[in-house]
Every structure is written in C-alpha cells, then in structure tokens.
Design a protein that fits this description.
The complex is a heterodimer of chains A (about 160) and B (about 270). Chain A has about 160 residues and is of the alpha+beta class. Chain A has 2 domains: about 5-80, Beta-grasp domain (Ubiquitin-like (UB roll), Roll), CATH 3.10.20.30; about 90-160, Orthogonal Bundle (DNA polymerase, domain 1), CATH 1.10.150. Chain A contains 5 helices and 5 strands; from the N terminus they run E-E-H-E-E-E-H-H-H-H. Chain A has helices at about 25-30, 90-95, 105-120, 125-130, 140-160; strands spanning about 5-10, 15-20, 50-55, 55-60, 75. In chain A, strands 2-1-5-3-4 form a 5-stranded mixed β-sheet, with helices on one face. Chain A is globular and about 50 Å long. Chain A starts with a strand and ends with a helix. The relative contact order of chain A is 0.16. In chain B, strands 4-5-10-6-7 form a 5-stranded antiparallel β-sheet. In chain B, strands 13-12-11-14 form a 4-stranded mixed β-sheet, with helices on both faces. By secondary structure, chain B is an alpha+beta fold. Chain B has helices at about 10-20, 35-40, 75-80, 80-85, 90-95, 100-105, 110-115, 120-130, 140-145, 210-220, 225-230, 245-265, and strands at about 5, 25-30, 45-50, 60, 65-70, 130-135, 140, 145-150, 150, 160-165, 170-175, 185-195, 195-200, 270. Chain B has a single domain (about 15-40, about 55-270), classed as 2-Layer Sandwich (Uridine Diphospho-n-acetylenolpyruvylglucosamine Reductase, domain 3). The longest helix of chain B has 20 residues, at about 245-265. Chain B has 12 helices and 14 strands. The chains are: A alpha+beta (about 160), B alpha+beta (about 270). The interface of A and B includes residues 43 and 70 of A.
C-alpha cells in the first residue's frame, strides 16, 4: 500500500498525516481525526450531509480525497463556533427550529455559510436554489430556509 | 473503492509524462463524475493525476471575437465571471445551472467535456458556439470532439487545456431539468451568428448533437414559430422514465423556440 504524507490545516490547527490516496476526506476527518460532526449520509455525492469547506469553499467531503487536501485549509462544523459562542448560522438554525433529527444539519450549515459568500442576493428563491445540494428528510425545508435568511442577515451585520 | 496512486504535478509536461509512463492512470479535474464512478467501482484507475496545481488551466480571456475558458475553471467561477457575462452571457447562464452549488464549486468545463455525459450541459454549448477544444496536442473543432456516449476524440495521454468559443450576436441556453439528477432531460443551446444559427442539443440523444433542420429553419427565419414548425424526428432519441423519444423531440423544437424569444428579449436563457 502506497501511503501519502499530507500536511494541512483543519479548523485552524496544523495536521500532518499518512493517508491512503483512496480515503475520502470525510473518512479521514471522522475516523482518523475523530471529527465526527461531519456526517456521511449517502456516501455517493447526492445528499450534502458531509459538506465541509476547503480553502473557504463548500464541497462534499465524500467526493474529495484527503490526499487532495494536502496544503489546504479545511473547516468542519466543529471549527465554526468560538468556544461556547455559536456561529450566527448555528444560532439561526437553533432559533428557527431548522432541524428535527439533525443528521443533515452540519452539511446544511456549512453550505449555508458558503452560500452567504457566493450569493449577494439572498432572496428566498436564491436560498432555495442555494440549498439544492443538501437533502433533508425531516423538515420540509421551510424552517431551514428561514434559518439561512436569518443567519445570513446576522453574518452580514456582524461583518458590517 | 480500489486502491490507487495519486500525483498532483505542477506542470502540464510532468502530467503528460506521467500519463505516458502509466497508461492506467486517469486525469482528475473536479472529480464530480469520476469520483462517484470510482466509489461505485464503475471506474478503477491505477492512479489519479490531479490537474489542480496547473495554474495555466485556470485562465478566462475575453476578446472582441471570442472567449477562452481554461479547462480547470469551475462552474461557479464561470457563472460569476464578469468577462463571461459580458462576452457570452448564455455560458454564464449554463454554468450557473449545472448540478447544485456543491457541484458547481468543484466541477470544471474541461472535466465535463472530457467525461461527455450525454445529458451534460457544456457539450450543447460547444456545438452551438462553434467552439474549438484546445488540448495538450492539438485544437479539435467541436463538431469532431464528441464521438459517442461518454466518448470523445481525446487520446489517453491528451488533456484539454482550454475551450475557445466564438462570440455570437446572440445566444441562449434553455434547460428542461430533471429535478432529481439536475441534468437536462433536454437542453438546447442556440446561437445566432451573422452567417446563420447553430443549435446544440443535450439530454435527448446518445450524445449532444446539432439538429440541422432547426438550424436551417432558424437561419432562414429567426422566429419562435419557425422553430415550432420544424418536425424533429424521434428516431434515435432516448426514451426513459423522464420522457419518451417523441416527448423529447417535441421539447427540442419548443425549447429552441423559447431560446429564440430569449435572444430577442436580450436574455441568456432559463431553467424550466
């Protein structure tokens, strides 16, 4: 087995590890770094539950190999709060009751934060389109859409 | 998933040398098609050669007569690019409707064309815009590039470096979307040039193609009705759970008609 040595930043901390090229980033994060907040739903690039940020942009970590993250900055759901102070998008999901079972929530939140970066006009239609890559089987999406709108407002207020 | 070796060369020459040395290796761009195929064990390359570190593949250059998009430019970047929006806005419209946002953050124009999915969006655009596919070895005219379902004229050790589009007088992309897969059930890219109209169709056949009868009718009379009067033959078109060949044939003419309306209104297309 050919192992590859990678050095990257995960949630602001430098990490160096030996990985097999075939390990999805999701597997590396969960099984090797024990960052189990990143959930694996379908594991086939459909559901978006495993969404993380790599160099500031959201991707499905089941469809990206850990070895590809060599040199990158990776942020997972564990890396967005400031200690006990939740990220504004997490607060909005909490306050809007935007989850039921919670399985898809880390991916929804990571994509929503990236959506605020990508999309200047966060109309309801654009939020709906922006969430197309993240499936939720519980909520019917209404409260997720409300939460993303509220979280985006809070993020933009915070950024001034 | 089977084990494989991984390289991320910083230059095209290193990449090509590695592909020649290791014929079972496969280039990887955004991986939005290749990685799911590998995870399903429908592809098992001995090695992946990642094109992500080759800076030269990420250019966008607009000029008076056309637009060049580097092979490794992702769909999100194309959809947001001011140069693309000014030069050929229908390409920005097309790129902004591929897959979902997580796919658009990763998937690239070069990867999409090399994969040549029969329902992918970009193949319709290269046909309608009379594009040239620039590779590490040559320049391939769009009409010669796609040779079949998931098949192209690319050789195993040949890499797309950029796509060069001709600038049309007007163009629009109409995508009749499969809400689940987000691929086109039928997508029609229509371009109007001084010397005639070109139409690229995806999703309807074994691979993207140009419906010549529509092109002739619209070159003679650029109106929605002229498109609707063309009887597209369902022979050879796909019949599946999303629609019969007859339904797809109808959609080709109807979407072309609506693309004409979009062009006449100065718009770049829509997702239906």
């Amino acid at each position: 087995m050919v192992m590859a040595r990678i050095s990257l930043t995960v949630n602001g901390k430098p990490v160096t590890a030996e990985v097999e090229p075939r390990w999805p980033l999701s597997e590396f994060l969960r099984d090797h770094l024990r960052l189990t907040g990143t959930h694996v739903g379908c594991d086939t690039s459909q559901c978006g539950a495993c969404t993380v940020h790599v160099n500031g942009s959201a991707l499905r970590s089941c469809t990206f190999f850990a070895v590809q993250a060599d040199g990158a900055e990776v942020t997972t759901i564990e890396g967005i709060s400031d200690g006990e102070t939740l990220h504004p998008m997490q607060v909005a999901f909490h306050e809007c009751h935007a989850l039921q079972c919670g399985f898809c929530t880390p991916g929804q939140i990571m994509n929503a934060i990236d959506l605020v970066r990508r999309e200047p006009d966060l109309s309801e239609e654009n939020i709906r389109r922006g969430l197309e890559g993240n499936l939720c089987r519980c909520t019917g999406y209404y409260n997720i859409i409300k939460a993303v709108a509220a979280g985006a407002r809070a993020m933009r207020e915070q950024a001034g | 998933m089977y084990a494989f070796d991984y390289r991320r060369p910083a230059s095209l020459s290193e990449t090509l040398a590695y592909l020649r040395e290791k014929p079972d290796a496969k280039p990887i761009a955004g991986g939005m098609s290749l990685v799911p195929l590998m995870r399903h064990r429908m592809a098992d390359p001995a090695a992946l050669v990642d094109l992500a570190a080759i800076a030269d593949l990420k250019r966008i250059e607009a000029s008076a007569d056309g637009l060049l998009i580097g092979a490794m430019v992702n769909h999100f970047t194309v959809s947001q690019s001011e140069a693309v929006k000014l030069c050929i806005p229908a390409i920005a419209q097309l790129a902004g409707g591929i897959g979902d946002p997580l796919v658009r953050n990763r998937g690239t124009i070069g990867g999409s064309l090399a994969h040549a999915d029969p329902a992918a969006c970009y193949p319709s655009a290269i046909l309608a815009l009379d594009a040239v596919i620039e590779t590490s070895a040559r320049a391939i005219p769009a009409d010669d590039f796609i040779t079949g379902m998931f098949s192209t004229a690319l050789k195993p050790d040949e890499i797309i470096t950029a796509v060069r589009f001709r600038r049309p007088d007007a163009a629009a992309y109409m995508k009749f979307i499969n809400a689940s897969s987000r691929f086109s059930i039928v997508g029609v890219f229509l371009s109007r040039f001084g010397n005639g109209v070109r139409v690229g169709v995806t999703g309807a056949g074994q691979h993207a193609f140009r419906p010549r009868a529509l092109e002739e009718a619209l070159s003679a009379e650029f109106s929605p009705d002229a498109a609707r009067r063309v009887a597209i033959s369902p022979d050879g078109l796909i019949s599946d759970i999303n629609g019969s060949a007859e339904y797809r044939a109808h959609l080709i003419a109807e979407l072309a008609a609506r693309a004409v309306t979009e062009c006449q209104a100065g718009r770049a297309g829509a997702i239906l």
